[in-house]
Write a structure and sequence with these properties.
Length: 114
């Protein structure tokens, strides 16, 4: 399974970005998926997760009400809609998929300026 993120960039505080994660290879083996982020000097943290059918989602408290995770299994793609962005959301965002093992994307940089 290969995962490729896109959609990162530079945005002002209060703005929005939409991240995408496209899966290829043995995408049919993928179950749960999630978005992680890692800021400089900090540990990687789970931002949001979603079950295989998309029916159950979970979020870290700091993004609840601002971020929305979703997936389109027909397109083998997962999304993260990020609204009301804050400077503390600045990080490299990684896509993760659970299949035969955990798979990771290469990451996409999100920078929020104040």
């Amino acid at each position: 399974v290969q995962l490729v993120e896109s959609g990162g960039g530079l945005v002002q505080a209060g703005g929005s970005l939409r991240l995408s994660c496209a899966a290829s290879g043995s995408a049919d083996s993928i179950n749960a998926m999630g978005w992680y982020r890692q800021a400089p000097g900090k540990q990687r943290e789970l931002v949001a997760g979603i079950t295989s059918g998309g029916g159950v989602t979970n979020y870290v408290d700091s993004v609840k009400g601002r971020f929305t995770i979703s997936r389109d299994n027909a397109k083998n793609t997962m999304y993260l809609q990020m609204n009301s962005l804050k400077p503390e959301d600045t990080a490299v965002y990684y896509c993760m998929a659970v299949g035969h093992r955990k798979y990771w994307g290469q990451g996409t940089q999100v920078t929020v300026s104040s």
